[in-house]
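Agenda item 2: NAI complex prediction
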Amino acid sequence: MPKHTVVTMSGDGIGNQVLPEAIRVLDAVGFDASYVHGDIGWEFWKTEGNALPDRTVELLARHKLGLFGAITSKPKKEGDAELNPALRGKGYTYYSPIVTMRQLFNLDICVRPCIGFPGNPLNFIRKKPGGGFEEPQVNVVVFRQNTEGLYCGVEWTNPPQAVHKALASHAKFRPFAKVKGEELAISVRIITRPAAERICRAAFQWARNYGYKNVTICEKPNVLRETSGMMEDVAKQVAKEFPEIPLWSTNIDAQTMWLTKNPEDFGVIIASNLFGDVISDAFAGLVGGLGFAASGNIGDEVAVFEPTHGSAPKYAELDPPIVNPIAMILSAAMLLDHVGQNKKADRVRAAIAAVVGEGKVRTYDMMRIPGGPKAMAQGAANTTQMTDAILARLQSVGMRDKVGAAH
Ligand code: NAI
Ligand code: MG
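Presented output:
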């Protein structure tokens, strides 16, 4: 029996194209696992009124490990219109399955590495004061609190009377108190101290384990005095357990500016849910963008790994597929790390680094050309060809490992 069982949730659109590529790489590196398919995504909203069916939740509860591709979600009106007519008016509400999964299994720690591969033509470059350009080595890992904050799901348009009344007890609500029913929308930002402690501790621990120079808490405590205030407070307290690692504090708005000014100065970054979502995409943009952005959603028991990108519907029907599988493959490498297979994970990353560094095989995004069926005629590799190139390098990286071991 294989040691691990991984629930593979390819989801919608290009999720179905990239996830099988990651399995090819896991197989090639000798990961001792079997795979079970889990239904997830828009199809299941339309047919069952639930984008994350209970049977998938049960699979995750049993096997504890998930690889997720991407899902499609659409605005409320469109979503309601696409629901199976037999289910309409029966109280079905669309919830993002990945957000639900994070909450259901308390996958509260989201890790998003944004690490540039030398030779990637998409890497950030900067003008030097004296002329010419330089390419700073970006190596940032964002720790995003994954279950609370503005994504906690506590929200209303036309809030019920009791909520309205409670809000009216706050002096700052006065200007909004007269806004009529449907004209008032409210999303609540919740931060709890235990969850803040977990994300801060996980971030510092990572910095210690992997030798990062600093940890930054990226919030907005000067305005969001209660919620961001608590995040910053907790970060300062947890920092005392890691005296060798300096804690920096930045505001999310200023951080988005500094990120293109001196990105190489930052190591591990902690942020609440929305800010972490934003800042990790922003840093990902410096190291190759969505084709390179991997992530892990980690709880006490269950962990699910996924590329940051979505289902990219405009490319989903292309045959052969053209999108970059590297973000998905890097997510699979994070899964290997999570189960203690760090050498295998390093081999995968080394193979990707070799292919990117060599620069011979590039998907359309790496060439900065429009995606589409014509991209290949311009020299772009398709999805499978990129994986093939990584697999080929995996052999030589593996050989080097063996040679190294023999000496
Ligand atoms: P998206 O990430 O799907 O695509 C945006 C653009 O990024 C694409 O059109 C493509 O140009 C590029 N791109 C994405 N992945 C790529 C890859 N692997 N290789 C090369 N280029 C890539 O975001 P978009 O268009 O905003 O959303 C499409 C759908 O995906 C929506 O329904 C959205 O709700 C959903 N979504 C799902 C996410 C998830 O499953 N975690 C995350 C983000 C969006
Ligand atoms: Mg996002």
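Discussion summary: The two ends are 33 Å apart (CA to CA).
Owner for follow-up: CH.
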